[in-house]
């Protein structure tokens, strides 16, 4: 950034150097922050000359020619999105989440030239803009973008990789109890109650619950391919026997009066086409989460909790697994229904619902 033309009274001061009451301050041309330079005018001018030489971009013919080869970060994001992202073969939900993050990074950093970006700049951006898992996700995506940029000759180094890699956050959310489930259920609309019942009985993720169609019901079974774990094979391809509980859920869904191909459906306030749905009645996973949260926050006991501790729709899956075990079903039964490849993964969900008995051990020896 070029320095502003000095007033007549201050022409004997170097660019970006200011005097107030006999005290000199230097204004960083990139950050805009002021730094004290003491009361010695000669020393302050000398320091300002050195700083300007390092921080101000030269305004000459050579730099203007070189600048024509400079690449904006927005160009790097666009090429990453169009050339590399499709090759990763991500699930649609993951693609949507990545697209959202790319839009955010492009909006915030797209105007910058890649060659001028610094580790400090990215570190401060990540620290100021994101917390917890959002920090981890955006840092990881930035690193991937720079990695791609290096392979295309658009970046010289992976600046994001040099920023602080923070440890994953411990789970803050409280597990969803059956009591809370019932209270949320009482505040839910009809379609949301059906979705909650379906998720609780089937132990499926919100994306799989929302994707299930009536045509997937065949010969007393529901065929379901878990989107998140499809690439891991047989564990993800489930043929779920429809018992009395699931049958009741499906009958209730069919009785909605809406001719929908999806088991979980609703009549929106405004019917309009969307690239994210194949039928106007379809419920997207994020809508399931959003409406669940609305019903949840009507429960006074939950509403008093900090937002980070309130259980999300994902906790229905863990609660269902716990209820199956409590009812006497085997761990293998629950593990298979959840589509987990190991028992440890299932235990990670269900152990959060264990109730601990407080006791003493005060023997003196």
From TrEMBL:
Keywords: DNA integration, DNA recombination, DNA-binding. Residues 1-57 form the Integrase lambda-type N-terminal DNA-binding domain. InterPro entries: DNA_brk_join_enz (IPR011010), Integrase-like_cat_sf (IPR013762), Integrase_catalytic (IPR002104), Integrase_lambda-typ_DNA-bd_N (IPR015094), Integrase_recombinase_N (IPR010998). The keyword DNA-binding applies. GO terms for molecular function: DNA binding; integrase activity. GO terms for biological process: DNA recombination. Pfam families: Arm-DNA-bind_1, Phage_integrase. Residues 181-352 form the Tyr recombinase domain. Belongs to the 'phage' integrase family. This is Phage integrase family protein. It comes from Marinobacterium lutimaris.
């Amino acid at each position: 950034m070029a320095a502003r033309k000095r007033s007549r009274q201050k022409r004997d001061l170097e660019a970006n150097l200011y005097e107030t009451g006999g005290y000199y301050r230097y204004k960083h041309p990139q950050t805009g922050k002021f730094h004290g330079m003491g009361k010695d005018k000669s020393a302050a001018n000398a320091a300002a000359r050195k700083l300007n030489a390092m921080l101000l971009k030269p305004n000459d013919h050579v730099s203007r020619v070189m600048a024509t080869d400079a690449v904006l970060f927005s160009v790097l994001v666009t090429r990453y999105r169009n050339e590399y992202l499709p090759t990763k073969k991500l699930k649609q939900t993951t693609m949507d989440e990545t697209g959202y993050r790319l839009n955010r990074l492009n909006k915030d950093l797209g105007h910058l030239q890649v060659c001028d970006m610094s580790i400090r700049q990215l570190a401060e951006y990540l620290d100021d803009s994101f917390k917890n898992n959002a920090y981890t996700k955006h840092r990881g995506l930035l690193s991937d973008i720079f990695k791609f940029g290096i392979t295309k000759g658009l970046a010289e180094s992976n600046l994001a990789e040099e920023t602080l890699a923070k440890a994953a956050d411990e789970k803050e959310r409280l597990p969803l109890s059956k009591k809370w489930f019932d209270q949320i259920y009482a505040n839910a609309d009809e379609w949301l109650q059906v979705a909650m019942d379906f998720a609780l009985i089937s132990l499926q993720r919100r994306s799989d619950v929302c994707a299930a169609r009536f045509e997937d019901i065949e010969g007393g079974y529901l065929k379901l391919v878990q989107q998140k774990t499809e690439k891991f094979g047989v564990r993800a391809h489930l043929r779920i026997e429809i018992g009395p509980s699931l049958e009741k859920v499906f009958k209730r869904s069919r009785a909605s009066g809406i001719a929908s191909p999806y088991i979980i459906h609703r009549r929106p306030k405004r019917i309009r086409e969307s690239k994210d749905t194949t039928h106007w009645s379809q419920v997207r996973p994020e809508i399931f989460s959003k409406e669940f949260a609305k019903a949840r926050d009507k429960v006074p006991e939950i509403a008093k909790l900090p937002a980070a501790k309130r259980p999300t729709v994902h906790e229905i899956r863990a609660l269902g697994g716990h209820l199956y075990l409590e009812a006497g079903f085997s761990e293998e039964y629950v593990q298979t229904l959840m589509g987990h490849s190991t028992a440890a993964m299932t235990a990670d969900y269900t152990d959060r619902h264990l109730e601990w008995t407080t006791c003493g051990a005060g023997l003196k020896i």
